[in-house]
Amino acid sequence: xxxxxxxxxxxxxSKQEFNANIPIWHGANFELLDLIFPIKFNPEKIxxxxxxxxxxxxxxxxxxxxxxxxxxxxxxxxxxxxxxxGISAQIKLDFLFPTGxxxxxxxxxxxxxxxxxxxxxxxxxxxxxxxASVAAYATKAKINCEVFLPLETPSSKVTQIMAYNAIxxxxxxxxxxxxxxxxxxxxxxYYASHSFNPFFFQGTKTFAYEVxxxxxxxxxxxxILPAGNGTLLLGCYxxxxxxxxxxxxxxxxxxxxVQSENCAPLKYLHADKNFDLQSFTALDTLAEGxxxxxxIRAKQMLEAVQYSKGEIITVxxxxxxxxWKEMASLGYLIEPTSAATIAGLLKxxxxxxxxxxxxxxxxxxxxxxxxxxxxxx
Length: 377
Ligand SMILES: Cc1ncc(COP(=O)(O)O)c(C=O)c1O
Prior knowledge:
By secondary structure, the chain is α/β, with parallel strands linked by helices. The chain has helices at about 105-115, 130-140, 155-165, 175-185, 200-205, 205-215, 230-245, 265-270, 300-305, 315-330, 335-350, 370-375, and strands at about 10, 15-20, 35, 80, 90, 120-125, 145-150, 165-170, 190, 220-225, 255-260, 310-315, 360.
């Protein structure tokens, strides 16, 4: 466990530091914050008797055990799958998390921090899965939660959030407009944002730890990840960098960021670093979870991809449907956003050296997207 006094926020641009025991979620002028603390990743400090995220509590920025808000989640299976186009990969079954998506990794650490700060009211905004996840952990911790959602959010995700006692606020607009309204509301509240709040990424980093343990510390060549707000991509990057700095591994894998062709801001930013993200508007996509036209951590996402020598892959709606159908035919009911990542994996695999060891994931369950799935079949 890392001591609270040793944890600081740091402004991503100004590099100004703040004590992480104060309830803030931004620096001056709403600057994004990261976290810094002295961490020396050491596989011997993994609590092997625990088969959940608490296995990694020595590397998580939460001081007291009793502050953890946990459903005993995580350490999801990593299974080999051979696809019809001949590609083989190891797939993490992150759709098995309690709320049906990998977002629970981030919510577990973020809500544990919020509980330890004594905060009682939080604001969130989401395309559905992060909202459901934060709402579940909030109700477990007896914290009031309001979630802003775009009008088009699948009804099952809205119902799930309401079931966890959160107040749902539907916004007559897209994901970008929803985030802007939530951002204003959060100024009078605490913003439990999965993209703004750096504690969320401290949870998603456990994906990287688990992959390395499950592969017996042999770094895969590439990890194919969704890239909406980059919560998993950046979490993975943090986790791999910690393991590298702790000499538990000697190289990090290529991080391959998958976006929908209809909403691929990272691809444009990669081609032109002066690309104006703010005025970028996207087309509709089946992959609602990665339909983020202007991710606030886009610059960091690009840095992670470039540092790892990875790449950005875009997939068409037809490729998403094809990947979804193939997974369903194997018995895996994933949501369309999750199928976009698999479509990216298939595309990357065909273009790459066929001997590469590839890792990817099922990021969300299809049970929450039955309306869309009904249309697809
Ligand atoms: C199922 C699923 N997969 C992937 C993503 C992509 O998220 P991010 O890039 O923020 O990690 C989301 C986001 O909502 C999601 O719900």
